Amino acid sequence: MKDETSQEQRHRVAIAILHQDGKFLLQLRDDIPGIFYPGHWALFGGHIEPGESPDEAMQRELREEIGYAPATLNQFALYEDTQVVRYVYHGELDVDVSQLVLHEGWDMALATSEEIGQGDRYSQQAKQRRPLGKPHQRILLDFMARSG
Length: 148
Prior knowledge:
InterPro entries: Nudix_hydrolase, NUDIX_hydrolase-like_dom_sf, NUDIX_hydrolase_CS, NUDIX_hydrolase_dom. Residues 9-145 form the Nudix hydrolase domain. Belongs to the Nudix hydrolase family. The protein has helices at residues 54-66, 113-118, 134-147, and strands at 11-20, 23-28, 41-42, 44-47, 74-80, 84-92, 107-111, 120-123, 128-131. The chain is α+β, with helices and mostly antiparallel strands. It has one domain (7-147): Alpha-Beta Complex (Nucleoside Triphosphate Pyrophosphohydrolase).
């Protein structure tokens, strides 16, 4: 008997690769046990609500988390594993990071391709290096490879 988890039983999330001048906006997730990737750098986004499309969820999540969403977000890829279905979007961050207001998470920053490759980044708020969530690192590495 196959052990299959249907898409309906997995968490469905929409996440965004927001890039500016060759760097990528990351959120340092709260260091709270029980959440996915506590204390890790991750892409902004979140759960898709019942009846909501991934596109709608992406816009809502960005506005909730940083008070901003780019005028244009394009679908990048779909990543699925046994627990999560990730709808990944990408768009240009066309405002300065200082204009964003962090409503969720511990810190935010633009990460370089080198930091993404090494899998960690220093946080001004935490005053220490923190790891990237492995799925988020993989997505960003894929994006960098495909976009040249």
